[in-house]
Design goal:
Layout (H helix, E strand, L loop, with lengths): L11 H16 L4 H12 L11 H17 L9 E6 L3 H18 L4 E6 L1 H4 L1 H4 L1 H8 L6 H21 L14 H4 L3
Parallel strand pairs: 1-2
Helix pairs in contact: 1-2, 3-4
């Protein structure tokens, strides 16, 4: 079975950009109630927890493990030794541990297990020389993505401004759009 890590906190760039957007909204006259609401949300995402597994993500993975254990209980026996694999990222390791706890609880016994950290399987894009050379650093590899962003970004900003009841938001430099930020 392969699953992605659970819900995580936003990344550092997302948190920083969120604060910058709130500042832009203040300068454009967005309703103080809206700005205060967004600021209270941003306060719940400290940079010290950026990209880490959230409490909701840990519960999500525990529940996934429990459901998996219940569904396949007849397949596993107390003498079985299972291997749980994750990448080395802190959120992936925490997700794996939460999954294992739910899985063991569903089976009614502690699973005898070994844990493996395998970035070569699960984060190949960080290690594969061909991917790095031919895709990650290839400016033309993301041409379609950039084309889409150039076309859609102004529309998204205008919709966002409309929802906030302001005439315009100055995001023309695309510094708030992670997809548009990527240079290839």
């Amino acid at each position: 079975m392969l699953s992605r890590h659970g819900i995580r906190y936003p990344g550092t760039k997302d948190i920083v950009n969120g604060h910058a957007m709130v500042s832009e909204m203040k300068s454009r006259g967005v309703s103080p109630a809206v700005v205060e609401g967004l600021e209270s949300v941003l306060e719940s995402f400290p940079v010290s927890e950026a990209s880490l597994l959230s409490a909701a993500g840990a519960r999500e993975q525990w529940e996934l493990g429990r459901r998996t254990g219940q569904r396949f209980a007849s397949v596993f026996h107390t003498s079985d030794r299972l291997t749980f694999v994750s990448s080395t990222s802190q959120r992936a390791v925490a997700s794996r541990k939460s999954f294992e706890l739910g899985f063991s609880e569903a089976l009614g016994w502690n699973v005898s297990r070994s844990d493996q950290l395998r970035d070569d399987l699960l984060r190949f894009f960080d290690l594969c020389p061909r991917y790095i050379a031919e895709v990650k650093t290839n400016k033309s590899a993301f041409a379609e993505q950039h084309k889409f962003c150039r076309k859609m970004f102004p529309h998204v900003v205008q919709c966002f401004a409309g929802r906030l009841s302001v005439d315009n938001l100055n995001f023309s430099d695309r510094k708030f759009c992670r997809i548009c930020q990527r240079k290839g």
